[in-house]
Amino acid sequence: MPTESGLLLYGTDGCHLCEEAESVLASLGVAAKVVDIAGDDDLLQRYGVRIPVLRDGAGRELGWPFDAEAARRFLEHE
């Protein structure tokens, strides 16, 4: 499954919600580059209590919880 250009999924290793978000994207045939926020203080401060967060190349963000329909609508406007 190719990674969508500019699509990032912020999360942390072992985050079960992040795994669920990846599954939602996979159900749509979409892959995002997974960014582990644990090693970056700025990302940790910005996203620490919000993960998983899907971010597109334009800087728009879709925060959890989201289902396949919400993700599809978000991606249609990418």
Automatic annotation (TrEMBL):
Pfam family, one: Glrx-like
The organism's place on the tree of life at top rank: Bacteria
InterPro entries: Glutaredoxin-like, Thioredoxin-like_sf
PROSITE patterns recorded: GLUTAREDOXIN_2
Protein name from the UniProt record: Glutaredoxin family protein
Source organism phylogeny: Bacteria, Pseudomonadati, Pseudomonadota, Gammaproteobacteria, Methylococcales
